[in-house]
């Protein structure tokens, strides 16, 4: 009798649990000690697409989640298996902070619904009055929306980070450019001053040198005549004195050495004149010139003509011109850039004949040209300095170290950029990218364009 009563109570409780669960908005199912489904509520039907009729009384709860049989959290609880020891759950589960003996898990289930769902699962033990395990209850919350939102947020965040990184890089570049142009400005002033001071004395030394050369020639002619006349001297003592004197001053040696000295000095002066000219160009990057619309390719070709002699025996020049529109520029100055790059390329090529490649192209409102060589390349530690005024790795007399900084200034004046790619021993490519038209802020009166120092 008491046993009958007990049965009824359990049945009653079970029915009550069914009603409770069906009225509950959270998808929930219950399995008994034998893994048989005893409850599968309406929310569960709705979320998982499997009906109560199909599920209750079976052990098929896995079907609602996976394509092949495998335990769910509720099954582990029924079997008293620690999820930590199950490879399916090891990295995913965590003990519930609310319910003793319960576990939680969040996972993506690709087989639920059309596009899969993110579910948050909680499984807890069910105990009878006597405290013994009677089964397990598992509830599922659809957290897809939250997950999607999280992912979107993450993506937005990543994108933002990317943008920040990009901006930082741009800023760094701008800052470098500013430092560079600052340096250029002060070097420009210095160069202008030095060039001006040196130009005059060098001018008259150079012209005096020409005169001196002429005078020396006359003196030597005269000396030769005297020497020839010595034989005709009647006084042998006088002849002997002359000969002794000649040996004492080493006249023969002087006759040989003076022209050599003259020649070397002359070369030195020519070199200095060259440097001064470079300095003047450098400090007057922006002498009064007209902004005009021009085709870069024409400029490259005419520059190539000028330096052809310097390059002819060093390298073959390959032109790979892409179609480009005219750009608004100072063509003569851009020619100078091209010239510097071409000469540098030729210098970079060793004793073996090399190749210099000229390219043009455009990208939207940007037009570019590049000068590439298969020469010596640039050492990584030099890359940051090649645009510095007076930086040169060339032997004295071959380089002034002004070519690239001059070019840098010109390109900057065009609001463009000059970039280099180089591999040591393989070659370098300098690329100059220019805007098609000059920005409105640059539209100034020509007088404003002049360099402050002349
Ligand atoms: N195409 C190139 N290949 C290798 N090194 C180069 C090239 N262009 C420039 N450089 C390096 O940059 C330095 C500076 O160049 P530049 O300013 O033109 O001065 P210079 O040519 O008078 O040395 C050169 O001395 C050289 O070391
Ligand atoms: Mg150079």
Automatic annotation (TrEMBL):
Domain Histidine kinase: 193-438
Gene Ontology molecular function: any one: phosphorelay sensor kinase activity
Biased composition (Basic and acidic residues): 439-454
This enzyme's EC code(s): 2.7.13.3
Database matches in InterPro entries: HATPase_C_sf, HATPase_dom, His_kinase_dom, HisK_dim/P_dom, HisK_dim/P_sf, PAS, PAS-assoc_C, PAS-like_dom_sf
Entries under SMART domains matching the protein: HATPase_c (SM00387), PAS (SM00091)
Residue ranges of the region described as Disordered: 435-454
Transmembrane segments: none
CDD domains: HisKA (cd00082), PAS (cd00130)
Residues covered by the PAS domain: 13-57
Record-annotated PAC domain positions: 103-155
Superkingdom to which the source organism belongs: Bacteria
Record field: catalytic activity: ATP + protein L-histidine = ADP + protein N-phospho-L-histidine
Pfam families recorded: HATPase_c, PAS_4
Keywords: Phosphoprotein
Protein name as catalogued: histidine kinase
Organism: Pseudoduganella guangdongensis
């Amino acid at each position: 009798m008491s046993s009958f009563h007990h049965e009824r109570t359990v049945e009653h409780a079970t029915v009550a649990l069914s009603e409770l669960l069906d009225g509950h908005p959270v998808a929930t199912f219950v399995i008994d000690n034998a893994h048989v489904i005893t409850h599968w509520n309406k929310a569960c039907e709705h979320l998982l697409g499997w009906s109560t009729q199909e599920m209750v009384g079976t052990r098929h709860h896995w079907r609602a989640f996976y394509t092949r049989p495998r335990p769910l959290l509720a099954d582990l609880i029924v079997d008293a298996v620690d999820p930590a020891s199950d490879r399916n759950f090891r990295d995913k589960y965590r003990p519930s902070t609310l319910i003793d003996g319960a576990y939680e898990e969040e996972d993506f289930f690709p087989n639920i619904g059309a596009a899969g769902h993110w579910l948050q699962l909680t499984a807890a033990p069910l105990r009878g009055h006597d405290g013994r395990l009677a089964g397990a209850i598992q509830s599922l919350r659809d957290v897809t929306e939250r997950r999607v939102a999280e992912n979107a947020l993450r993506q937005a965040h990543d994108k933002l980070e990317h943008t920040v990184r990009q901006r930082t890089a741009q800023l760094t570049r701008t800052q470098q450019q500013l430092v560079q142009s600052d340096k250029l400005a002060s070097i420009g002033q210095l160069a202008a001053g030095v060039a001006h001071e040196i130009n005059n004395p060098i001018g008259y030394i150079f012209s005096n040198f020409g005169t001196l050369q002429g005078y020396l020639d006359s003196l030597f002619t005269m000396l030769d005549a005297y020497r020839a006349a010595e034989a005709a001297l009647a006084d042998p003592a006088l002849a002997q004195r002359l000969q002794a004197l000649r040996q004492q001053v080493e006249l023969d040696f002087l006759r040989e050495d003076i022209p050599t000295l003259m020649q070397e000095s002359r070369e030195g002066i020519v070199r200095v004149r060259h440097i001064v000219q470079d300095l003047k160009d450098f400090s007057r990057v922006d002498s009064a010139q007209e902004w005009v619309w021009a085709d870069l390719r024409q400029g490259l070709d005419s520059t190539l003509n000028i330096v052809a002699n310097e390059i002819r025996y060093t390298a073959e020049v390959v032109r790979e011109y892409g179609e480009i529109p005219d750009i608004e520029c100072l063509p003569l100055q851009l020619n100078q850039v091209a010239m510097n790059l071409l000469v540098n390329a030729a210098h970079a090529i060793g004793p073996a004949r090399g190749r210099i490649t000229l390219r043009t192209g455009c990208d939207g409102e940007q037009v570019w040209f590049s000068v590439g060589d298969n020469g010596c390349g640039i050492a990584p530690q030099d890359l940051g300095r090649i645009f510095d005024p007076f930086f040169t790795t060339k032997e004295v007399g071959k380089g002034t170290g002004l070519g690239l900084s001059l070019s840098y200034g010109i390109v900057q004046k065009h609001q463009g950029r000059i970039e280099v790619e180089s591999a040591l021993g393989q070659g370098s490519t300098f690329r100059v990218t220019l805007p098609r038209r000059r920005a409105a802020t640059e539209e100034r009166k020509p007088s404003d364009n002049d360099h402050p120092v002349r």
